[in-house]
Specification:
The chain is α+β, with helices and mostly antiparallel strands and 265 residues long. The chain folds into two domains: 88 residues; 164 residues, Gcn5-related N-acetyltransferase (GNAT) (Aminopeptidase, 3-Layer(aba) Sandwich). Helix content is 29%, strand content 27%. An eight-stranded mixed β-sheet has the order 8-9-10-11-12-7-13-14. Strands 1-4-6-5 form a four-stranded antiparallel β-sheet, with helices on one face. It has a two-stranded antiparallel ribbon with strand order 2-3.
């Protein structure tokens, strides 16, 4: 990593600085310690063929990590372990941070059918603790959906670190079937304005249940139960079929240069 950045990345840093300045004035607290941001090396983009991906990253640590991450989330950042990141690719802004306005969500006919088909499922809110049962499900999912990815070769220790290594408030949303087997799970960060989906996985042999879709419906319901407005879903990329499912959930907001606004994928 290096500390230099082109114009696009400097714009991202200016947005983050503005967020921190607003946080300081709102809380009337002493200014936080300087926060360092770094740019990752160039790698092939996993979403758009032929493009190069770079990220802006910063470390989350200390007693103020949760509050700092709340502000970063509203600026389009995501979390992986103890790092917050967002795309910072020169000449490309295809990755649009999106969030569902859970407080105004109304399921359409197809989503209502998915909910009805999973009426026998139990949704469980759990602490972020890894288990062998979860890991076996995670491994089946990876080998079925992402067999050529690095995650497919993760050990139990790797998986445990992903679930438990978090400097911010984190929980697991689990799906349990009628046979008392875990069929799906999503790691979520708890924000002051909602939930942020970090990573989800589910039973690949239960395709008819549309468990990925049902997990999002469960997250929306949990967000509303908490009285929070938003469910953050990460990035939507118009040119990536992997991201198409996110457009099914409305109203959907995207982060633009002018701020969060409704989008119509």
């Amino acid at each position: 990593m290096d500390g230099t950045a082109p114009a696009e990345e400097r714009d991202t840093k200016r947005q983050t600085t503005a967020l921190l300045r607003a946080r300081k004035h709102r809380n009337d607290a002493p200014p936080p310690a300087p926060q360092h941001f770094y740019r990752t090396a160039s790698l092939p983009c996993p979403y758009v063929k032929g493009r190069i991906e770079r990220k802006l990253v910063t470390e989350l640590s200390g007693p103020e990590a949760g509050g700092f991450y709340n502000e970063l989330s509203r600026g389009g950042f995501r979390r992986s372990h103890h790092l917050a990141y967002r795309p910072a690719c020169a000449g490309c802004n295809a990755c649009v941070p999106v969030r569902i306005v859970a407080s105004e969500f109304a399921a359409g006919p197809s989503l209502r059918r998915v909910a009805a088909h999973n009426r026998d499922m139990r949704v469980r809110i759990a602490e972020p603790k890894a288990s062998i049962e979860q890991f076996r499900l995670f491994t089946r999912y990876q080998r079925s959906r992402h067999n050529d990815s690095e995650m497919a070769s993760m050990t139990y220790g790797d998986y445990r670190a992903m679930i438990e290594d978090s400097p911010v408030a984190t929980q697991l949303i689990e799906l349990w079937g009628p046979n008392r087997a875990i069929l799906g799970a999503c790691l979520v960060d708890v924000l002051d304005d909602g939930l942020s989906a970090v990573y989800s996985f589910y039973e690949p042999d239960e395709a008819r249940r549309s468990l990925g879709t049902y997990l999002i419906l469960a997250l929306i319901e949990e967000t509303r139960r908490r009285g929070a407005p938003y469910l953050y879903l990460g990035y939507w990329v118009a040119e990536s079929s992997k991201m198409a499912y996110k457009s099914r959930f409305r109203p959907l907001e995207g982060l633009t240069p002018q701020g969060w606004d409704l989008v119509d994928p």
